[in-house]
């Protein structure tokens, strides 16, 4: 049967998320999730939430959550944008700010959703090669472009730029929007929030999925000048006015209010990361310097794909990317001390 309508369908290679195994007794270190529960206040919100309120639409403006975020970062509420996870925020930012004929720039090894959005929204782009040791050379961004996207720290490498390098990048790209994707910033990198007062073309995107243990609720946000945020709001309201649900708004507010718990969990992840990195080096792995909640590693004598499959058979799930330049590397999320000990024991057995 002839199906001419098939020629009119959008053809695109979608983003492929980390595997989500459902079996019990697994060690899941493949999606950069936080191994600890969210703040006690979040658990209280879920315990006492009035289900009858779900019959009504949530606050489309998310005023309470915007207010606590603005207070924490020292900005105006009009400088805060909310979305259904940072992916939603970034997708809206791509639609809002990358509208020229010039290509946007981002690293050649980075978050694999960027090229998907470019193809989906038909945004021209150019990838900028990382150095041999996976560092960003900001001088490579000194050329005409339609915007810059830079994850800091980068994924899957875990490497980060200091704040003065971010400012240098902004000073040389004043005629376009610069997006700093700070999904992992809370694990050891300085945020670029302090630069917002001086650079109106800067947009910072963060998430509560990683450091605040709320991946299951999808809470993302952006910080920027009032002009940029107003543009994001206009695009969002032309697409979906209610991007965040009532439970997520309440839980997100509770998570931001508990600063002490947030700091404690970040310190625990950082301490485990450093201990696990040293243990992996002792096993002969090369471990890229990481300021994120994951480690990027390779072994000089063993193929990454073989290690990946061996651990998978042991119900230990990590991430393997069959991509140019990194097809012999593995990304390992930092779990609890107990989980990392089991990972190290399995690797010792394998080696």
Give the total of beta strands.
13
Distance between the termini: 55 Å
Strand residues, percent: 5-15%
Q: Runs with pLDDT <50, length 5+?
A: none
Strand order of the largest sheet: 2-8-7-6-5-3-4
Mean pLDDT level? 95
- Which secondary-structure class do the elements indicate? alpha/beta
How would you characterize this protein structure?
The protein is an alpha/beta fold and 351 residues long. It is built from 10 helices and 13 strands. The protein has a 7-stranded mixed β-sheet with strand order 2-8-7-6-5-3-4, sandwiched between helices. A 4-stranded antiparallel β-sheet has the order 9-10-13-12, with helices on one face. Helix 3 crosses helix 6 and helix 8 runs parallel beside helix 10. The longest helix has 24 residues. It is globular and about 55 Å long. The chain starts with 26 loop residues before the first strand and ends with a helix.
Write the layout of secondary structure elements.
Layout: E1 27-28, H1 40-48, H2 63-73, E2 80-83, H3 85-97, E3 104-107, H4 113-121, E4 125-128, E5 147-151, H5 163-171, E6 178-181, E7 202-207, E8 220-224, H6 226-237, H7 246-257, H8 259-282, E9 286-287, E10 294-298, H9 304-313, E11 316-317, E12 319-320, E13 330-333, H10 337-350
Structure characteristics:
alpha/beta, seven-stranded mixed sheet, 10 helices, 13 strands, 35% helix, 14% strand
Summarize the structure.
This protein has 351 residues and is of the alpha/beta class. Helices cover 35% and strands 14% of the residues.
């Amino acid at each position: 049967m002839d199906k001419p309508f098939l020629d009119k369908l959008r053809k695109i290679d979608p983003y492929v998320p980390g595997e989500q195994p459902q079996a019990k007794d697994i060690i899941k270190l493949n999606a950069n999730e936080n191994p600890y529960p969210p703040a006690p206040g979040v658990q209280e919100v879920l315990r006492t939430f009035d289900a009858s309120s779900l019959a009504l639409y949530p606050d489309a403006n998310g005023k309470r959550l915007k207010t606590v975020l603005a207070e924490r970062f020292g900005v105006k509420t009009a400088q805060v944008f909310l979305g259904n996870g940072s992916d939603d925020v970034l997708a809206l930012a791509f639609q809002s700010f990358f509208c020229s004929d010039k290509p946007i720039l981002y690293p050649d090894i980075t978050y694999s959703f960027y090229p998907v959005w470019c193809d989906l929204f038909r945004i021209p782009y150019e990838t900028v090669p990382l150095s041999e040791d996976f560092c960003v050379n900001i001088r490579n961004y000194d050329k005409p472009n339609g915007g810059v996207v830079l994850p800091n720290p980068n994924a899957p490498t875990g490497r980060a730029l200091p704040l003065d390098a971010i400012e240098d990048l902004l000073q040389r790209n004043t005629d376009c929007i610069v997006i700093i994707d700070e999904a992992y910033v809370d694990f050891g990198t300085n945020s670029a929030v302090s630069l917002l007062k001086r650079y109106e073309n800067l947009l910072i995107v963060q998430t509560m999925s990683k450091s605040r243990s709320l991946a299951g609720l999808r809470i993302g946000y952006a910080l920027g000048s009032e002009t940029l945020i107003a543009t994001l709001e206009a695009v969002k309201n032309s697409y979906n006015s209610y991007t965040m649900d009532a439970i997520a708004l309440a839980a997100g507010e509770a998570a931001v209010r508990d600063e002490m718990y947030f700091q404690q969990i970040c310190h625990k992840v950082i301490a485990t990361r450093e201990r696990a990195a040293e243990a992996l080096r002792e096993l002969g792995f090369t471990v890229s310097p990481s300021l994120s909640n994951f480690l990027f590693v390779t072994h000089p004598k063993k193929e990454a794909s073989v290690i990946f499959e061996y651990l998978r058979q042991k119900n230990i799930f990590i991430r393997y990317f069959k991509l140019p330049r990194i097809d012999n590397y593995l990304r390992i999320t930092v779990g609890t001390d107990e989980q990392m000990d089991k990972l190290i024991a399995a690797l010792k057995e394998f080696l």
